[in-house]
Write a structure and sequence with these properties.
4 helices
């Protein structure tokens, strides 16, 4: 198992290399900013939502970005940790017993990258890749409980890629779409089967660009944001009210109020819903039903969050975030029948914090 510390060391090497390579693939600046200098292009959010314009823009055609949004992100390194929290598991199957435990450490490490592959006035495309790892450390080890031991020894991994497409129709309307495929589960490099771990999600939004400071749209998303794969509506709303205040939302998944403290400092407050589906393969045979070897873990959480983003040096930015994480579901289902729940888990709410480094287009390039 590759630890988070090893990825942090590798992340430092990647960050230095990308600092020299990224400026060559960045986009052009938008219209003249208001009195307080702001970046015209939005940054891709932690959830890879379509609420932001990740593919650049052309001032002649419509797009979802508005004045005041932060700089677009090319490469992101993200680390997150929670305080200790309790977990209560109630069995729905004879193969498991009821159990309680305490998670002393819950860490997440995320690396994301975005590369424009097509940039024309009527069609813009970006390819993104991401790697995520979540680790659990229980207070009492070994726990003697199959699920807890699997989580601690293997962790949860995500390896994904996505294609984002922006199709401006005219000066007032646009279509924004995203296709994303991820390998989610407790797999290792030597035991990875694509068909078992692959999860696909899709998003489509039709939008209106009312002004340089206001865009909105309606659409739908098919994915795992609320646990089980389902279709749910998406309402895009990006608006800047003044030189210092705005809102960025893709309701119901995320709503953020933005404050532009300066050209180099942004503050955010709001909420975000995150959800994933993981495939877990037990290493040990269960006593009652030995054929139950694979289960699906459906996770949904709501974060009340505050965030600060600050420029360190031209192309390098720093992000710090803190808040409270409420876990809505962390339940285990029989993989053979996705509707049969075998373990009902309740995770207590807990404070969390995260740190982030990301690379953006150099300021001198945006002014060209």
């Amino acid at each position: 198992m590759i630890s988070i510390s090893a990825f942090l060391r590798r992340g430092g090497q990647i960050l230095g290399l990308t600092a020299f390579l990224l400026p060559g693939i960045c986009a052009e600046a938008q219209v003249k900013p208001p009195r307080t200098p702001v970046y015209p292009r939005p940054a891709p959010p932690a959830t890879d939502s379509l609420a932001q314009d990740q593919v650049g823009e052309d001032k002649e055609f419509a797009n979802p970005s508005v004045l005041g949004q932060g700089p677009s992100k090319g490469l992101i390194f993200h680390y997150e940790r929670t305080a200790a929290f309790d977990i209560t598991s109630k069995s729905r199957s004879e193969d498991f017993e009821d159990r309680k435990g305490t998670v002393s450490n819950n860490d997440r490490f995320i690396v994301k990258g975005y590369i424009p592959v097509w940039n024309r006035p009527h069609l813009k495309m970006v390819v993104g890749v991401n790697y995520e790892r979540e680790e659990f450390e229980f207070k009492d080890r070994p726990t003697g409980y199959t699920l807890y031991d699997e989580l601690e020894e293997k962790g949860l991994k995500t390896l994904g890629t996505q294609l984002v497409v922006l199709r401006p129709l005219n000066e007032d309307n646009f279509v924004l779409g995203r296709v994303k495929g991820e390998l989610n589960g407790d797999y290792t490099s030597s035991a990875l089967q694509l068909k078992d771990y692959l999860r696909m999600s899709y998003e489509l939004v039709y939008g209106w660009k009312k002004s340089p400071t206001f865009s909105w749209g309606i659409g739908a998303q098919l994915g795992y944001t609320f646990g089980r794969r389902s279709i749910y509506p998406a309402i895009l709303y990006n608006r800047t009210w003044s030189d210092h205040w705005g809102v960025e939302a893709l309701f119901p998944a995320r709503v953020l109020v933005r404050h532009n403290a300066s050209a180099k400092s942004l503050l955010f407050a709001g909420y975000e819903v995150n959800g994933l589906s993981y495939i877990l393969k037990f290493r040990e045979t269960l006593p009652i039903d030995p054929t139950l070897t694979t289960v699906e873990l459906r996770e949904t959480e709501v974060k009340m969050r505050g965030r600060w983003e600050r420029e360190i040096y031209d192309f390098l930015w720093f992000g710090a975030e803190g808040g409270y994480r409420y876990n809505n579901s962390f339940d285990v289902f029989d993989r053979r029948n996705g509707r049969t729940k075998v373990i009902d888990n309740k995770l207590a709410g807990t404070p969390y914090f995260s740190l982030e480094l990301f690379i953006v287009p150099p300021r001198r390039f945006l002014k060209k």
